[in-house]
Amino acid sequence: MIAKTRCIPDGKKELKKLPTEHYTEAKYLYYPVTSARCPEGETCVRGGQFVKIGEVIGTRKGAFFEQPMHATVSGEVLGNEKHIDQSGKMVDCLIVENDFKYELHESIQDRTDAEIDALTKDDFVEIVKEAGLVGLGGSAFPSYIKLSTKDQIDVVLANGIECEPNLISDYGLMMTNPRAVIEGLIFAMKASGAKKGVIAIKKKYKEIHERLEFCLHEFSQYDIKIQSVGNFYPQGWELMTIKNALGIKIPQGELLSKYGVLNFNVSTLASIYAAVRHRLPVLERYISLSGNGIHNKNFRARIGTLMTELIASAGGYKDPETPKVLILGGPMMGVNVTSDDIVMTHTTTSLIVQNDETMIEEPCVHCASCVYSCPVEIQPVQIMNAYKVRDKDMLKNLEVTKCIECGLCSFVCPSKIHLTEHMRKAKSFANK
Ligand code: SF4
Ligand code: SF4
After folding, report:
1. Backbone angles phi, psi at 225, to 5 degrees
2. 53, 220, 225, 426 - which has most CB atoms within 10 Å?
3. Domain boundaries in the chain?
4. CA-based angle 101:68:334, to the nearest 5?
5. Is the CB of 407 under 6 A from ligand 1?
6. pTM greater than 0.90 (yes/no)
7. Cα 186 to Cα 182: distance, rounded to the nearest angstrom
8. Reduced to 3 states, what is the DSSP secondary structure of residue 175?
9. In 3-state terms, what secondary structure has residue 202?
10. pLDDT score for 3
11. 368: Cβ below 6 Å to ligand 2?
12. Mutational test site, ligand 1, from 232, 252, 333, 374, max ligand atoms within 8 Å of CB
């Protein structure tokens, strides 16, 4: 039977009922000197030096951009240590010992309305660059590069769909601080010259709709509307969001700006607001611990906090004698990690811990469910077969590079074949 589906259990109902703890107890904060997009980096502080919140402590260096690193607490620089970052790899981290005074660096000063009104496009781009802002939905793409486009932008899309199961970071932000999202959207509109803003959320999030709507009354001089979209997966994939929220169909691989669109995750927009209004970099994120192998809890915690601290604060693991599977991110697109020695970065929003239930792969039954469910209309089973015999030409013919690694093919497969893992490997093989 063909099990075509884009409806998946989202696991958010229970998580949304849990309170969110503002965790400020971290004694030591760890700042990765590199990231997936920046394989090199350097620090600009010495051991024993005192730093304050918002102070630049180093620079991550990528092929086409640099990202400043900022302290998220005040305290003393201690040295370096290795921990796991969002990519699942062990990386070198700078350590700052928290003095729990939470002193702000002298550069962190609010801008007045008049100062903001006087900002030019170049000023906005520079502010966002200096704050080290990247796509907080997971892409970690530098936000200033998006904003500095020379293309004419008609609309800025605020993506609040967060379609992956178990993730409620954007939900938490929109419920508690809708104003920051709206003001960030307005700043992005000013920076890009867009006349229009659209906030895309899921249809079923009526409570968010109400909060945003209420908040928008204050900003009636701007052309901003809320657009509800379907509850299916992967609705948050930017091309699908743009198609369903704006009615614009953009082919894969094309620049959104060529079609007059800029797309930002809502958390990224809130970070643009904080950078423009308060001269602040990203200091905190909402993060959830979920899954049947751990006591579930939501936190708001400083970037640089160790996950082991949050796990202990939540009450630790359930069934400690049972082996665990750890996923950093959502269950569909997240990264499997082998240890909980993880440091929170800009894009860390979730750790899922499942008691390990060994799933044995069975032979393909040629049901075609993976093919019918794939949102980019490629053929996962054929790609897997081509990869197994390392047929690069066939992989190219099958357009493996279109795969967005959404995980749906693995989810629908009745034989429990890890198709997405094959897609990742096949993509990397085809690109070599
Ligand atoms: S992981 Fe790739 S191949 Fe599988 S359904 Fe998603 S886009 Fe299609
Ligand atoms: S790989 Fe799985 S989903 Fe795809 S055709 Fe085979 S059994 Fe069906």
Report:
1. -130, 160
2. 426
3. 23-102+290-355, 113-278, 369-430
4. 90
5. yes
6. yes
7. 6
8. helix
9. strand
10. 58
11. yes
12. 374
